[in-house]
Amino acid sequence: MLVKRGWRPITADEEAPLIDGALALGREMLLRREISTEAALSRPLFASALRLARHRRLLDSGDSDIRQRREAFAADVQRALAAINRLQDVYDRPLNGLSPPDDRETLSIA
Fold first, then answer.
1. Residue 93: pLDDT band by 50, 70, 90 thresholds?
2. Which of 23, 44, 58, 64 could bridge across to 53 with cysteines, CB 3.0–4.6 Å?
């Protein structure tokens, strides 16, 4: 959503509507099965993401390169999500016919 804003700043009054928009978009993505869990759709999660974006000066910065920095941030998030998904896939895969671990044992995927 930051990338869609292009170079335009996001003021403090626009943060709540931005979170509402992200939640609505997330619900659509959940219905289309583009995301797999409703746990990914929470106001606190999106508020944390906005705090991170603010820390990186991606909300109200007047820098001329803000659009490119927003795109780089989106790419960073996509890479992190892809890594998490790969780890989940490895965890979900059976280990050569062995049963999945119970709560008492821990397996390393490293």
1. confident
2. 58
Q: SS in 3 state form for 23-88? A: HHHHHHHHHCCCCCCHHHCCHHHHHHHHHHHHHCCCCCCCCCCHHHHHHHHHHHHHHHHHHHHHHH
Q: How far apart are CA 97 and CA 75, in angstroms?
A: 36
E strand or H helix at 20: helix 12-31
d(CA 88, CA 13): 37
**Coil, strand, or helix at residue 98?**
strand
Enumerate residues 6+ apart whose C-beta is below 8 A from 53. Answer: 2, 59, 73
Average pLDDT over every residue of 12-22: 92
> How does DSSP classify residue 1?
-
